[in-house]
Specification:
By secondary structure, the protein is mainly alpha-helical. It has one domain: Four Helix Bundle (Hemerythrin (Met), subunit A). It has five helices and two strands, in the order ααααββα. It has a two-stranded antiparallel sheet with strand order 1-2. Helix 3 runs parallel beside helix 4. The relative contact order is 0.20.
Amino acid sequence: MITPQYAVTMAKYNTWQNSQLLDVVEVMDHGDLAQDRGAFFGSILGTLNHLLWGDLLWLARFDKARQAPEGAHLTFCADGPAWCEGRRRCDQAIEAWAHALEPGQLEGDLLWYSGALQDDFKKPMRECVVHFFNHQTHHRGQVHAMLTAAGQNAPVSDLVFMSESI
């Protein structure tokens, strides 16, 4: 199904996509970022916060030495600059995790407790890693649509157009 190289490629893609979002978010007015746009997580900032919080949570599930994020996912970062700082750190952590991943770590099941669903879960590790990267792509797509509707320049999002030099 997947290999550590898949995780490396997707981690690189994640960083590339988020670096393009950083360029927009860093200069966007806070009111525009926080405006409720009728999306599942309300605003651009709410969706970006959910994604950052979720990435940190999944990293903590994959690497038990990491701390799970605290606080509410929609208000995790108060503003664009805080989100940009947190996103940069998280993307570095994702890339480091992916580069250190060994084939055997993708075998077997991942066990975790979901605070949101108040239940224990057990799923194949490979499926959880695919979900991790798919979740990022899904929510960045929502952000892309909201940025476009807000009159902002939304980034190129096609994996096939990612430069080899990234």
